[in-house]
Amino acid sequence: MLAKLGMVHEGTKRRHARKGKRHLDVAFFGMLRDEWERLGSA
Questions:
Q1: pLDDT in tens, 20-32
Q2: Domains held by the chain: number
Q3: Hey, is 30 helix, strand or coil?
């Protein structure tokens, strides 16, 4: 979903978050300011 919005996968922290007894991976996405501004003017 985030990639469709123009964001780039920056990395994944493995087993970073815990939900109950399960450890979950957390994905990080980012976008540069000029990329964001380009989307706003399109």
A1: 999 999 999 999 9
A2: 1
A3: strand
